Amino acid sequence: MTAPLDSIFAALADPTRRTILAMLLEDDMAVTDVAEPFEMSLAAISKHLSVLERAGLIAQEKRGRLKWCKLEPAALKAPSVWMQGFGQFDPVNLDDFERFLAAEIKFQSSDAEQEGS
After folding, report:
1. Which one in 16, 86, 96, 100 has a CA-CA gap of 20 to 30 Å to 71?
2. pTM (2 d.p.)
């Protein structure tokens, strides 16, 4: 159980990957669409997607010529159960998780705007 949890928490530790997960909450996306809002290469985004896929948080599949990404929300069950063992955490509520990710994106956007000023 430790190895899957380690990979999930490691994947969630990166703000770019959390942003990607928030984007995928809305709908499946082509890799090129995932990469669009980021100021990094497609290869760098592909590495982030690989980390998320290895952690089981997303699935990738080829549709025609494009590779698509899909959120795998069930992967959050194991970390949720693990955190419940501490008695301080409720099960992961995907609506709450979506709000958390949206707030993270807004926070990071405002930080980026302040740095650019």
Report:
1. 86
2. 0.72
